[in-house]
Amino acid sequence: MTSASLVEQEVGAAAAAPTPAARTRGLRKVYGSTVAVDRVDLEVPEGAVLGMLGPNGSGKTTTIRMLLGLVRPTSGEVELLGRPMPESAGITLPHVGALVEGPGFHPFLSGRENLRRCASAEPLMASGSIRGAVSEALERVGLSHAADRRYRGYSLGMKQRMGLAAALLLPRKLVVLDEPTNGLDPAGTREVRKVIGELHAAGTTVIVSSHLLAEVEATCTHVAVLHRGSVVAQGELDELLEAGSPAVVVSTPDVQLALDSLRDNGIGARSEQDGLVVDLVGTTAPYVVRVLVESGVAVHEVHRRRAGLEDLFAQLTESEESGDQE
Known about the structure:
Blueprint: H1 3-16, E1 22-31, E2 34-44, E3 49-53, H2 60-67, E4 75-80, E5 83-84, H3 89-92, E6 96-99, H4 111-120, H5 130-140, H6 156-167, E7 174-178, H7 186-201, E8 205-209, H8 213-219, E9 222-227, E10 230-236, H9 237-243, E11 247-251, H10 255-264, E12 269-272, E13 275-279, H11 285-294, E14 301-304, H12 309-325
Parallel strand pairs: 3-8, 3-9, 6-7, 7-8
Antiparallel strand pairs: 1-2, 1-4, 4-5, 9-10, 11-13, 11-14, 12-13
Helix pairs in contact: 4-5, 5-6
């Protein structure tokens, strides 16, 4: 292949690569002597549902506020929908729906009237579409029954639903939700999960900041884990869970024979409720199967063991704590 062909191939690959929906490089935010965000490199693929995880004070909300141009970084770069922020906020933000740090509405207006005011401020909303868009958003978040009640009488969960409705007044390229299930009961949490699924199916990119690991595992395709202002892991959720669990589960009636055979070959294994768990540290799944079969063990099934997101989160944050103490 000629050098010209190689150049053409590289240019074609670059052209085919999709622009991330959101990206940061060396993002840093300092308040006085407090470093809230420290050199965060984050990339959110277009169409992904990214779960942003981290304990309180890890920098999740500050990172989101810098993504949306609500806070100017101390240093670093931010791109949203392919444009630099906050310089391009006027062009970019009409395509972004966001619920950040709890919603704020006029207490003496009804939910419907508040949403109409929000809709009238949307630069991409035609005036003739406001009434229908408001009704649809209220229905989508389960607030139609309370639409004409004053906002001041809403519960915490209802206020959270209102914030979500405002973010969904019209189709968005990106939706950012900061703790969207805060204050919601189990039914409300399921509804938010359904909305996120609908957005994902429609091709909308979603960023969800949450401390509910089970919800993130159920709804997200990608995850970014923040700890003490830095990203300690990010990527596709399935890949991270696989990487955090170097083990296979073997289904066999010959449990003791299998344990003895594996341990004789220096392979760690233990019997648990779901089967024989074999650690893959220093070995491979094919070799484990070979040892078992050659030892006369009846192997019915072998599958990779995935760590739960809670286990992965604990591993990542605890390893960071250990590193700080060394």
